[in-house]
Specification:
Blueprint (H helix, E strand, L loop, with lengths): L1 H6 L3 E2 L6 H4 L4 H7 L3 H11 L4 H13 L6 E2 L1 H10 L3 H19 L1
């Protein structure tokens, strides 16, 4: 019960699992993303750095340490930092990152 309550407070980034690799995309999503599904899965493999084991260790340590929050993975830390910026700056950085990410994935 304590673990479930604590998990409501966690910020989890991309975890390296087979979820993205095994995802199915409908034609509209593929068209909207402008990417081949296999390339999207490859990009997710490169982007998601945190293993499930590492995520579990961070969560358990946070619960045992009675911390309100735990940031799982470097991407979660990056979003935490971005969220502290003024909205205009935050939105511009997200847009630039999205554009850069779509160029790298091609």
């Amino acid at each position: 019960d304590r673990m479930l309550r604590a998990l409501d407070e966690y910020v989890i980034g991309g975890i390296k699992t087979n979820i993205a690799r095994n995802a199915r995309f409908d034609e509209e999503t593929v068209r909207m993303l402008g990417q081949d599904p296999d390339r999207l899965a490859d990009a997710a493999d490169r982007a998601f750095l945190t293993t499930p084991e590492k995520a579990a260790k961070v969560i358990v340590a946070a619960v045992e340490g009675n911390r309100r929050r735990a940031f799982i993975g470097p991407d979660a830390h990056a979003f935490r930092l971005l969220s502290q910026l003024p909205p205009g700056v935050y939105q511009n950085l997200i847009r630039m990152g999205t554009l850069l990410g779509s160029k790298v994935a091609r």
